[in-house]
Amino acid sequence: MEDLEHYQVSTMHYSRIMIAVDDDDFVSSRRAFDYACTVAKIYNIPLGVAMVLETGDLNIFQSLSPDVLSKRRQEISRDLNSYCDKARDFGVMEVQPFLSEGTPGHEIVEKVVPSFKPDLLVIGSETKPGHRKTIGTQAAYITRYAPCSVIVVRSDAKRQEMLQDLSK
After folding, report:
1. In a domain, 121, yes or no
2. Running DSSP on this structure, what letter comes out for residue 135?
3. How much is the pTM?
4. Distances (CA, A) of 127 to 1, 22, 27, 130
5. Nearest to 133 by CA among 99, 101, 97
6. Looking at residue 44, what DSSP letter applies?
7. pLDDT of amino acid 136
8. Does residue 11 sit within a domain?
9. Tell me, what CATH number does 104's domain have?
10. Nearest to 48 by CA among 31, 34, 36
């Protein structure tokens, strides 16, 4: 059995990274997206960009209306493609979009991650409490059940607030 005395630090290298962005919460997604793009660019590895259409946010009438659902799918798809374009513009060589529908935590863990097989999943999370089922509020579920390493990147909103308080 290896012990600390004989242990030597070795280089850790990721081969695939995935970022889960929340279309309804740019604040918590922005820093996580920046981090994921930075890591993917430095390691020159594929980046998966995942977005989930949160069907639970739609009321019964919206979910039964094909026009409303179709319009929301188009909006999400447009925003997902925009994130992918921004990653490419930043210098990430290989970017792959993933769009799913349902509860973000479940969809990411059960469908998106197994499809892309990343060895690192990056998610954003705000520091303020909330009851919505966004990527940020699903961070605990994702970190608990994801089959790969997960990094939670906090939004800088709370930090900015603290700095403003100090400057007064």
Report:
1. yes
2. T
3. 0.82
4. 41, 15, 11, 9
5. 101
6. T
7. 55
8. no
9. 3.40.50.620
10. 36
9 assigned to some structural domain: no
Range of the domain at 80: 17-167
Report the domain count for the chain: 1
- Kindly report the backbone phi and psi dihedral angles of residue 142, in degrees, each rounded to the nearest multiple of 5, phi listed first: -65, -45
Span 56-98, pLDDT tens digits = 665 555 555 667 778 888 999 999 999 999 999 999 999 999 9
Measured distance between the N- and C-terminal CA atoms of the chain, rounded to whole angstroms? 56
Q: Where are the beta strands (DSSP E) in 32-162?
A: 47-53, 95-101, 120-125, 149-154
Asked whether residue 1 is domain-assigned, the answer is no
Which burial class, exposed, middle or buried, applies to 61 when counting CB atoms under 10 A from its CB (0-12, 13-18, 19+)?
exposed
The pLDDT score that the predictor gives to residue 48 is 98
Alpha-carbon distance of 108 to 62, in angstroms, equals 23
The single-letter code of the amino acid at 11 is: T
The token duo for 154 is: 């906090």
**What is the model's pLDDT at position 28?**
78
Q: For 88-110, what is the mean pLDDT?
A: 95
Q: Is 1 helix (H, G, I), strand (E, B) or coil?
A: coil
**CA pair distance 153, 18, nearest whole angstrom:** 13
Task: Say if residues 14 and 119 touch (Cβ distance below 8 Å).
Answer: yes
